[in-house]
Amino acid sequence: MTIHVQNLEPANATQTAGLMEGRQVADKTVKSRKVGLDCGGQAGLGELRQPVTLEMLRTKLAGFVHAGRQAEIRALLRHYGAERLPDVPTKYFDELLQAAEALE
């Protein structure tokens, strides 16, 4: 009987160590996601910000074009050194989206 207890103790220790490692990995994942949190703007506290894509910009700016505000959109694009939306560098997508939302 003592043999069985001795055999179980190392197994339990290994199992406990495995659980602790799993928790540490989970904690690191949660911490890495917290870095990407946005505390201001449209997103609420605790929400992850989605990266702005060309399609998101296209959808947003299309509403202005259909409303007859092409001149304002062209001025925004020129501000970022582009004549057309696909010519805008991706690093400015977030700024451009915020500028477009400010036009509303």
Architecture overview:
By secondary structure, the chain is mainly alpha-helical. It folds into 2 domains: 1-43; 54-103. Helix content is 65%, strand content 0%. It has 4 helices and no strands. The chain has helices at residues 2-35, 54-66, 70-79, 93-103. α2 (54-66) runs parallel beside α4 (93-103) and α3 (70-79) packs antiparallel against α4 (93-103). The chain starts with a helix and ends with a helix. Residues 1-20 are annotated as: Disordered.
Protein traits:
single chain; globular; 4 helices; mainly alpha; 104 residues
Counted beta strands: 0
Strand content: under 5%
Largest sheet: none
Number of helices: 4
Distance between the termini: 77 Å
Structural class of the helix and strand makeup?
mainly alpha
Q: In angstroms, what is the radius of gyration?
A: 26 Å
State mean pLDDT (0 to 100 scale). 74
Segments where pLDDT lies below 50 for 5+ residues? 25-40
Characterize the overall form.
globular
Number of domains: 2
Order of helical and strand elements: HHHH
Q: In which range does the helix fraction lie? A: 55-70%
List the helices and strands and how they pair.
Blueprint: H1 2-35, H2 54-66, H3 70-79, H4 93-103
Region (Disordered): 1-20
